């Protein structure tokens, strides 16, 4: 049996793995409005890397610098201080023509739709196809396809005055996406949309990120509906990036934790704090994950796949979604109680000894539950040593 496990997870501050296709790299970015006595600095020493195909949310209070950073990345403002590279373009030293060239590959979505009032929906979208021209037939087909995907197939010949606010916003989104841009920069793209339309837009953005083009999507938003579609959340306060954390992975981990018997009843907030400390590992069929009798330093939660558990050399039970195994021997004063072998390909959510102790210190509910397990004060006590 092999013991090859590969780590694919990251927690807290995110640094991209070596070899990642980085399409946004900001280092030490500062920005100020005005000059002299009226000069007001709004960005302070910001560092950020985003890879191809990521969907990243930027959040923070009003005036925190989100929109300013977004417009710098989109080459709508000149970089003042620090370095900024976007889609292979060095914006630190780019002139006006360099900025224009970059913008051809970016789809912009703003709160104000800025449609031409004298043009129909399809004509407004067709305006953008001039940046990536083709035959008239091909450009019309692209515009119709995008409008249809956004639920406006029956409104393509309507003027803006004949459309609702949400429909106008969707026309503007179609205009931003019609050229299949390498990057989408959006400022509150779903603010004026109802729940159904928002879901349609978010699904489309996620599909673009996951599809062949692997479009990178950066959204400034306060819309909580976006979180399930995002890979990361970047939070800004006072002109600084203060947190940069994974989301889609964290959601998967939280759901698995919620299905774990020994953690039943813990709040979403507590499960989220635990998830923040966990990493993701994958294993292949036949991999031995833990071995009975050894000193253990990690807990595992099954995310996907199935494993077999053996005790005293005999088959014990199956381990599947939401089930836990492993041991922190130094804390529980016991060795690993079972050998666990992957039956299929698996995704495992892992809590190391150090991160287990950090999670205990950070969340009193988690600590109380663990102490209860140790003391045998509830029905989970029998499985406490392994959270099994």
UniProtKB/TrEMBL annotation:
<dbReference type="Pfam" id="PF00027">
    <property type="entry name" value="cNMP_binding"/>
</dbReference>
<dbReference type="GO" id="GO:0016887">
    <property type="term" value="F:ATP hydrolysis activity"/>
</dbReference>
<keyword id="KW-0378">Hydrolase</keyword>
<dbReference type="GO" id="GO:0022857">
    <property type="term" value="F:transmembrane transporter activity"/>
</dbReference>
<keyword id="KW-0547">Nucleotide-binding</keyword>
<dbReference type="InterPro" id="IPR018490">
    <property type="entry name" value="cNMP-bd_dom_sf"/>
</dbReference>
<keyword id="KW-0813">Transport</keyword>
<dbReference type="Pfam" id="PF00005">
    <property type="entry name" value="ABC_tran"/>
</dbReference>
<dbReference type="InterPro" id="IPR000595">
    <property type="entry name" value="cNMP-bd_dom"/>
</dbReference>
<dbReference type="GO" id="GO:0005524">
    <property type="term" value="F:ATP binding"/>
</dbReference>
<keyword id="KW-0067">ATP-binding</keyword>
<dbReference type="InterPro" id="IPR017911">
    <property type="entry name" value="MacB-like_ATP-bd"/>
</dbReference>
<dbReference type="InterPro" id="IPR027417">
    <property type="entry name" value="P-loop_NTPase"/>
</dbReference>
<dbReference type="InterPro" id="IPR003439">
    <property type="entry name" value="ABC_transporter-like_ATP-bd"/>
</dbReference>
<feature type="domain" description="Cyclic nucleotide-binding">
    <location>
        <begin position="262"/>
        <end position="360"/>
    </location>
</feature>
<dbReference type="InterPro" id="IPR018488">
    <property type="entry name" value="cNMP-bd_CS"/>
</dbReference>
<dbReference type="InterPro" id="IPR014324">
    <property type="entry name" value="ABC_heterocyst_DevA"/>
</dbReference>
<feature type="domain" description="ABC transporter">
    <location>
        <begin position="24"/>
        <end position="263"/>
    </location>
</feature>
<dbReference type="InterPro" id="IPR003593">
    <property type="entry name" value="AAA+_ATPase"/>
</dbReference>
<dbReference type="InterPro" id="IPR017871">
    <property type="entry name" value="ABC_transporter-like_CS"/>
</dbReference>
<protein>
    <submittedName>
        <fullName>Putative ABC transporter ATP-binding protein YknY</fullName>
        <ecNumber>3.6.3.-</ecNumber>
    </submittedName>
</protein>
<dbReference type="InterPro" id="IPR014710">
    <property type="entry name" value="RmlC-like_jellyroll"/>
</dbReference>
<dbReference type="GO" id="GO:0005886">
    <property type="term" value="C:plasma membrane"/>
</dbReference>
<dbReference type="InterPro" id="IPR015854">
    <property type="entry name" value="ABC_transpr_LolD-like"/>
</dbReference>
